[in-house]
Amino acid sequence: MQTADRNTKYTSKTIQSEILEAAASCISDVIKEEVSRACKFALMADEAKDISNIKQLSVCVCYVDIDSGKVKESFLCFVAMQKYGAVSIAQTILDEINKAGLSIKNCIAQCYDGASIMSGTMNGVQTVIREASQNPCPYIHCMAHRLNLVVVDIARGIPQINKMFRLMEKVHSFFSISAKHYDVFMRIQELHGLRKQETPALNDTRWICRYASLDVFVNQYDCILETLERLGKCDEMLADSSTGQDAEIVSFNTITLMTIMLSILQETQPLSESLQKEDITLDKALSNMESVLVNLVELRS
């Protein structure tokens, strides 16, 4: 840059895209070299919608780094999906593995979520990949995802807990739909000398993540009540809505359920995070799960 012409800045969108593509190519070459040296790898893939509501398939590989002797996870690519059948998804994965210069025959395990299209033993992605790899290539369900499913299944089976979370969502919506509501809530937190926090929206699929939402709600409990009371007094049109939510929040059942759920999620949240770490091992995972089970049993007593 110091010796280039003054009009050579490399800031145009075309040049920037070329630089990114070159960097991606260099990184891919490094990953290919590392996986080739490791000989074997595990395949990981997952889908998620982006901000444009387009399904993106992420493909990663997990292998042992020969130099350090440690397990390493490397991201290969995102692919915008046009078709969502098991064969289409599997073929996309196979195409990306080939583009990376890897052989699917060296794949010794595959890890996806529990959706039937991915995990199906007859026509699922795992079956198509296994046939292509020509080796057992076992499917392993993400342990963190399984933990989330357990929490979801238990919580959804208890109407009172569902009602409590719906109340939290109503309060979040009440504070979010109006700048006035939001400003009053922020000012009250400031008056109490607390760090300003919003009431987070609840995640419908990842209940483990609801710990953060519930933690904020409990920590800001007094401020939430004061905000609802103040808004109800200042605006007659809001009185019924804020008073109704106020009455629900201060009920014995709501307070009890919030306390219980916070205690439970305080145990499961760290476990979920540990199961997603790159350096997690089977013995560590089993030990962490056993500790959580012991703590949950103690909570019951």
From TrEMBL:
InterPro entries: DUF4371, RNaseH-like_sf. Residues 2-124 form the DUF4371 domain. This is DUF4371 domain-containing protein. It comes from Latimeria chalumnae.
